[in-house]
Amino acid sequence: MDDRRTVKVSKYLSKHLRHQPERIGLTLSGDGWVEIDTLIAAAAAHGFRITRAELDHVVAANDKQRFAVEGTRIRANQGHTVEVDLGLPTATPPPYLYHGTVARNLDAIRAEGLRAMTRHAVHLSPDRETATRVGARRGRPVVLSVDAGAMHRDGHVFHVSANGVWLTEAVPPRYLRLPEPH
């Protein structure tokens, strides 16, 4: 499977397992799972043919480990805009986590902090390198440091997904270290 096809299948899975399952007639379980055979059949019925081998390759090869397979089921690990309960336990974060963004978002972040927007949680990275890759998807990346230790001590709740992404409801501005405005 070539890289272009891998990316195309990954984006298709993200769209339909995180954001628009109904678009191809899927119904996710309350915790985000769908039968793999049902997904493959629904995709084919809507003009996107994918084999089980391609799906397995995308799940295994995805650098961000966006998807999980358990037996005959698949789900996205996080990032949903549809209502699901991933059942992630609370976790104690490391002292600092990181968030990748772009400069055009900094004024709003300074004023409001990090908000989940259309997602169910704010996504935070365990290291600067990952946050840089996340921010680079939208342009020249800016990496923000999050004082997760202080947030946790102040009662903010954190979860960590199967692929190591840290999730929290919001990050108020006082817990952020932002680059200085120019």
UniProtKB/TrEMBL annotation:
Keyword Mitochondrion on entry: no
InterPro entries, sorted: Ptrans_KptA/Tpt1, RNA_2'-PTrans_C, RNA_2'-PTrans_KptA, RNA_2'-PTrans_N
GO MF, any single term: NAD+ poly-ADP-ribosyltransferase activity
Keyword annotations: NAD, Transferase
Pfam families: PTS_2-RNA (PF01885)
EC number, as in UniProt: 2.7.1.-
Any one GO BP annotation for this protein: tRNA splicing, via endonucleolytic cleavage and ligation
Keyword check for NAD: yes
Family: Belongs to the KptA/TPT1 family.
Its biological purpose: Removes the 2'-phosphate from RNA via an intermediate in which the phosphate is ADP-ribosylated by NAD followed by a presumed transesterification to release the RNA and generate ADP-ribose 1''-2''-cyclic phosphate (APPR>P). May function as an ADP-ribosylase.
Cross-referenced NCBIfam families: PRK00819.1-4
Protein name (Swiss-Prot/TrEMBL): Probable RNA 2'-phosphotransferase
